[in-house]
Amino acid sequence: MQFELTDELIEQVQFLIEMKNDKELQLLLKEYHYADIAEILDELDLEEAVYVIKLLDSETTSDILMELDEDNREKILRNLSAKEIAEEIEELDTDDAADIIAELPEDRQAEVISQIEDEEHKAEITELLAYDEDTAGGLMAKELVKVYETWTVAGCLRRIRGQAKDVTRVHSIYVVNKQNKLVGRLSLKDLIVAKSDQKIADIYISSVDYVYVNDDVEEVAKVMQKYDLEAIPVVDNNQILLGRITIDDIVDVMKEEADKDYQLAAGITQDVEADDSILELTKARLPWLVLGLFGGLGSVFIMKGFENVMETVPSLFFYTPLIAAMAGNVGVQSSAIIVQGLANDNVKGSIASRLFKEIGLSLINGLALAVLVILFGFIINQELIESIAIAASMMSVIVVAALVGTFVPIVLDKRGIDPAIATGPFITTSNDILGIYLFFVLSGLIIGF
Amino acid sequence: MQFELTDELIEQVQFLIEMKNDKELQLLLKEYHYADIAEILDELDLEEAVYVIKLLDSETTSDILMELDEDNREKILRNLSAKEIAEEIEELDTDDAADIIAELPEDRQAEVISQIEDEEHKAEITELLAYDEDTAGGLMAKELVKVYETWTVAGCLRRIRGQAKDVTRVHSIYVVNKQNKLVGRLSLKDLIVAKSDQKIADIYISSVDYVYVNDDVEEVAKVMQKYDLEAIPVVDNNQILLGRITIDDIVDVMKEEADKDYQLAAGITQDVEADDSILELTKARLPWLVLGLFGGLGSVFIMKGFENVMETVPSLFFYTPLIAAMAGNVGVQSSAIIVQGLANDNVKGSIASRLFKEIGLSLINGLALAVLVILFGFIINQELIESIAIAASMMSVIVVAALVGTFVPIVLDKRGIDPAIATGPFITTSNDILGIYLFFVLSGLIIGF
């Protein structure tokens, strides 16, 4: 059943578009899931993609739009009238509808909203647009199945049949009191198993997880993951039920967060993909490279300061890439573990105990590596004092690099800055400079220059 | 409603354990969700944790066990008898039960299985244990709601009431034919909305996504994410329905994969957390550091070969950390983009076009950085020919590093090796050596030594 995007399929679609053979094209695309059609559209020219969107009914195209690559979606929407976009919006759940509108330029947003015919849908979308996109409110949908505690099971089933039409998937039925405050939940299963004359108040489950509308999405993701939830209701500060968030949206958030952190660690400053344009890739990569360059030029400066050592202990200069590499690697390892620990809430204990642990850990690693450096010195017939100086200062560099890698993210996190920025090139670069400086100073103290 | 793990709470639990005040302890813990109790237990001593597990009923403790940190779970299980573990297993869904048993030492596995009283549960768990843990079979549960296409809606609802008791959450109802082949699906909603005398054959939806029992879990995750599924049925090669996978398990798989890739990129070879012991952290970190050290010693060797250049153009040696850093950073960026692209299936086009793009991209980046290096040369009054030699060879190093970073993961992927291992220290180290060698050779050609 796996869909495979083949060149033949794309060519076939392109051929039918060129021939304007709408009937055949509709028949062909009907076979595919909207997520598959989105993949096909991502491969077409803009004009071709717009042609397909205008051809298919808005029930299908609204879903396709949601699955398209963001850049492509933006381009296609620019080629649709406000009326046409509004028609797509009518078909979407409120959360997706609000997301699409939020992506439009501001002047078009009002225009599109004014064209939405369903007044309730319009009001709900406008409400959702007011929330910050990184909060529960920005992620929730207004579609949910809600019952009052005073209803009976039979009455409930009857009304759910009405409500459920608008809700793609019924995860939980939320139970509210007269003031619309969330008081509990029910599953469809519970309802089916219950007797039809029972009151909802007698059968609902009062322990219900929920999040507040202003909670951060990462917090929502953590709660849903921890408690294995597939949907979670969103309430305001007075417990009034406002909407619900479903796990598929959280899966997307998690994927985006993981990709972003990975890219930050690799020194890529914005969301790019392998198939983006050279210009976009350059914009994402050059900033960190320039930072790395300044770091490297800083090392040039430091080493120029020790130029006279070249005559007495030239071999020190051979070790500078090694020192920079070790400082960088240790720093990246330490920062990665801490950043992940902070994200997963498993960095516990006091600062002092962490300090102690990190020093212990890096001393063990440093010692093992120092032994190897001294052995290497024997092999290449290096003066013992030089080998010892190099090994000892390398050990110190490793300890300092580990401390920088551990504590910079912790400090950033305490100040409310995303600690993930302190991984990769940032740590590597600062540790490079610091490491090389320390290396020369300490070797100088041991060898005596 | 957010649960917070406070020191007071832990102390209170510890006090009640010490006092052996079972009644109060049970009352206290009853207030909390099993995932919260697991967090509390992760903070207790082994003896205390075992005390709590033995105190609470197995319906609760089985869920707690699943949420515990893996190391802690292993220790606790070692303190339970085969009979006691079997009692926990009886309460768990088949997928969780099989996971727990798979974690036990082999001799205990048979012992625990033999103590399971429910014969059907035992058979199902034994079946699941046979599948590779990285496949759909290793992730699926046997619990699902299955109806035959010949049943009526009323008969269906009646039987579902029976089946659903064993199924925590009914996502979809799977429709099978007489041979137990999967033919379609139904939602509870569809069933409630349908008339009671309709036949299932008339109302079921025949387009149903499914995966094969031997499909890779990453493939399953991709399918479920793409099609926004909350559960997916698993079939064998003859389309016989074997089990189902739910999104909460996929969420965990995605999280683990993302953490693993992030750690690989940061040079950490096994799954560790910030709070693991120094020994475990060393085991995870030292291997890559040793690799980095060998790389650095390789650079020492290369530079020793160019020792005589120290007299004519000493400044070249000041630039070696810069060259190594640029080679490393560019390589990590390129590999990260490709590894992510391969994971998300968006690396398209031919090898030739990718080669062309990567060269173009790195030439642009390299040129921008080369200009900065020449400017820096002016500022520090460096000979122009030296600056040009350094800038030009740096550019070449950047191009080569980008190519290595791009194509090593592609080659690994083609050979069926996880390309994520070719990020971080691996790319940094090989690019460091290659870069420094290239730098001296090319500078030599330009300056003439």
Overview of this structure, please?
The structure is a homodimer of 449-residue chains. Chain A is mostly helical and 449 residues long. Chain A has 3 domains: 7-134, MgtE N-terminal domain-like (MgtE N-terminal fold); 145-253, CBS-domain (Roll); 278-448, SLC41 divalent cation transporters, integral membrane domain (Tetracycline Repressor, domain 2). Chain A has helices at 7-18, 22-30, 34-43, 46-55, 58-67, 70-78, 82-91, 94-103, 106-114, 119-129, 136-139, 153-164, 188-193, 200-203, 217-226, 247-265, 278-305, 309-312, 315-318, 320-343, 351-379, 384-414, 425-448, and strands spanning 145-148, 173-176, 182-186, 211-212, 231-235, 241-246. Chain A has a 3-stranded mixed sheet. The first copy, chain A, has a 3-stranded mixed sheet with strand order 4-5-6. In chain A, helix 15 (217-226) links the parallel strand 4 (211-212) and strand 5. In chain A, helix 21 (351-379) packs antiparallel against helix 22 and helix 22 runs antiparallel to helix 23. The longest helix of chain A is centred in the last third of the chain and has 31 residues, at 384-414. Chain A is elongated, with a radius of gyration of 30 Å. The mean pLDDT of chain A is 89. The interface between A and B is large, with 113 and 112 residues.
